[in-house]
Amino acid sequence: MHGHRKPDQTGAASGICFVVLFISGVIPLGELLGSFADSDATFDAYFASASNRAGNIVGGALLGASAFVFIWFLHLSPMASA
Amino acid sequence: MFASGMVFVALLLVGTAALVTVPVKLAFGGVFDTQDVLAVGQAVFPQLGYVVLALYSLRAAGVMVAAATVSARRSGSFPRWLCRVGFVATGFVFLLGMSGGLAFFALPRGCWPSASTGFERDIGAPTGRALSPPRRDSQPHDRCRGPVPLRIRRSGAIGRIDATLRSRSCDFLVGSCLTSRLTNTPIRDPLRCTTWTGRHENALLSAIGGHSTTPAGRASNDS
Questions:
Q1: Which residues of A are less than 8 Å from B2 in CB distance?
Q2: Which of B212, B112, B213, B107 is closest to B166 using CA atoms?
């Protein structure tokens, strides 16, 4: 049964997948995260760009996906009961 | 670990939802002909998402990393160097979460000096280190007038402990003064490692805001 992975390997893969998804999701959202306490006009100008909106939507989707992958990681982790 | 991890996931989803609410609305809101519904919230939702993600979500992540590290250390499933890396990562994630909330932490820190100043004004200047022997000049002065300089445990920058100690100290003094009045015994103050004689009772009560109400106390204060 060479095609089956051990649970530890699957857990590690899910953790790595979470990290990749999280970082790739935060990068498009970085400018929006860094605009904390900016003026309302700044947000209006930022959201007026279609590319910014698309990047934010993609980043949000990746970040949400990373959250679900992290649940999978927690489920597979041997230390989850701690 | 599982609970803190789930809290992290929940906060991550909430923060992400707050961040992408406005872009999703602007991109797809035209389908429902609702272009101006979130005109006010355009600046609010992204900042809410930032607070949830950078402030609370990272703290939950820090708790999870700490729980995983402690669990691995107990079970021996991680090598020692990896456990150390885990503790370092815990501190880093906590600091990362706190750096996003410096404005929130600035408020208590700003209140601590004022609370300490008020404490010095009400009871007396807390000087010296914890439970060091009282100096001669820190004893209540003979005529029992004005605030009494007391030696008290200094809590440093932790204002909460300082306030707790202040409350406990005041309660202790009030109770001790009443006991001393009934039993005619000196007041023993374990916090300050000293003993107050009965003639200073009214000065103590005055210092902590509990003014004497008996004729003898008023006469003692006036003398």
A1: 74, 80-82
A2: B112
